[in-house]
Prior knowledge:
A: 8 helices, B: alpha/beta
Amino acid sequence: MVNPLRATLALAARDIRAELRSRTALTSALVFAALVLVVFNFARDPTRLGAADLAPSALWITFAFGAMTTLNRGFAIEKEHGALDLLRLAPMPREAIYGGKLLANLAFVFVVEAVALPLFVLFFNRPVWHILAPVLLVTALATIGFVAVGTLLSAMAVRTRFAELMLPLLLLPFMLPPVIGGVQVTARLFADRPLSEVSGWLRLLAVYDVVFVTVSVLIFPAVADE
Amino acid sequence: MRPSDGSLLTATDIERAFGARRALAGVSLVMQPGEAILLAGPNGAGKTTLLRCLAGLARPTRGTVNVNGRALRVGDAASRRHIGMVAHQTWLHDDLTLLENFSFAARLYDLPEPKRVATAALERAGLEARAGDLPPSLSRGMQQRAAIARALLHRPDILLLDEPFSGLDAAACARLRATIADIIAGGGGAIIVSHRPEEVWEVATRVVVLRAGRVALDTPKLGSAATVMGELPELTIG
Amino acid sequence: MIANRDRGLAIARRGQLIAALGLVLLAGVYVLAQRFTPTEVNQGLAQKIFYLHVPAAWTSLLVFSIVGITSALYLWLRDERLDLFAASSAEVGVVFSIIMLTTGPLWAKPIWGTWWQWDARLTLTLFLFFLFVGYLSLRAAVPDPGERARFSAVVAILGFLLVPFVHLSVYLFRTIHPMPVVLKPSAPSLPDSMLRTLLIAFAVDLVLYIGFVTARYGLGLVAHARAAELEARPDA
């Protein structure tokens, strides 16, 4: 029996290698992220709304929509040449297919976020060094949450007629708790509030992650198998 | 590991239906070692669906599939090593070179030294010169040869081939027939779906014809393609 | 699933009767709320919408849970009837959630002076609407019936699990929605007469749900029977 962890990593490695060669999803996501940040900076009345008020929202909207533009790619390519069948024919547990896709998607989204965050610091002039660790933590927690659900939903959306529309429609409700949590925590961190104030949100995000990753892994076979 | 009747593959009363549509309405099939079965029938008869059920890619709504005596449940890993499949799509990832595609397939089957195995498979298929190329740059025939080579990578003993000859030139067709002959000589089995029986007639040992989701004919191959298929003219359409 | 056309029609007819009864009862609730229930001292007449909005909200939530649970049962048992029931419930549920979404602002404007507030309670109502719409859109976009059933079941289950998280956000988020007056651990702080009207309205909504979902389910059986008839016919 194939070691599921090895299989998961092999699949993730394959997807990452493929993306590095074509760079389509990453490029569009990065350009998109930069655009959103620029637009946010100008799309406000500077006398009424300080950059500080807008900053957390701008950051999280960038993360959220940047993630969505990369997510559809994960299963779209499989569909083009039926390669999902290859994965299902092989002695590869279904959970490992989901795990591999999840890891690859997480890698892509983290890259987008890793580029968006410094851009954000640049455009919004918000120093982030002193709170870097908690910001990274909340980003990771929230991202895992919506990428876990997004990976599962994109496996389904890609088989519908309007994949680009179906994924955002299905995913949006599931993005709200992580994004709300992300914004709330980031806003408080930027306002130099003590960590104890955000622990409740961080706990909620962690529980969200555990629940939805577990459920997605368990329920993926129902999506993958005919 | 073999069941008492020694069969490689046993399908019992396979049904696949949802709501009103019945793709398969009770198909039973036993494949013994050394058989190469030509699976024929008109369009929509259920040939591809049956193949997918036998491969474990689709779950029958009723009935069971046994591979080497083990029940093949969708998601069951152990039996899958024995199955190699060529489908309508090539299953090659467009952004990976042939070598990377093959190495990944080797990893999927947990083969030691995946890169070496991949290179050897490419050499056997005469594609080693294109090992560093991406699938879209290959001709249709070469992509098909690559798909076949990838299916054989893990040395399966049960081949499920869906229109494998499409896109192949005469030399490649002959090579494929020889490969099938080798496999069945070694005690393996093959089921080949084909619209043109002449392509595979040489190596076939048995003919099964599906019609409207049921087995209409199941006979050892005797005589020429024209004779057998000619007896049931409506079955040659499609 | 072997669907019988006559049985389906019989079920549909029964459902339509129940739904008709429910509509009559609904008119009765309207009268009850207007004439026989005291007017709330602070909110005045606008508060009467409460008897329409809150039961619709509870019913939406209940129906959504039913969709989630029947979907989970479908994935386990793979009985097509469960899928048909889940889909029928979702169609009825989306109507209730639309009622909830339209009566909410109608109540909010006179009371709070604004059509909408992004507080957690109203946000939950919007969520349910999006989840229903997502479920129904997905069903419409998947042509293969087996796939349609599996995929929508997955979405329903995920959505069902999402609801508590949205609700948890209520307590981490300041809200201007009236604090829960009925479902408090101790006795509800609503005067008995109002509570009674509210619960009667909820019961009527349940009657409406049962009626409509039965009718829809019956019609679904008829549709299946018809499709089977067409399949059985030899190719023209």
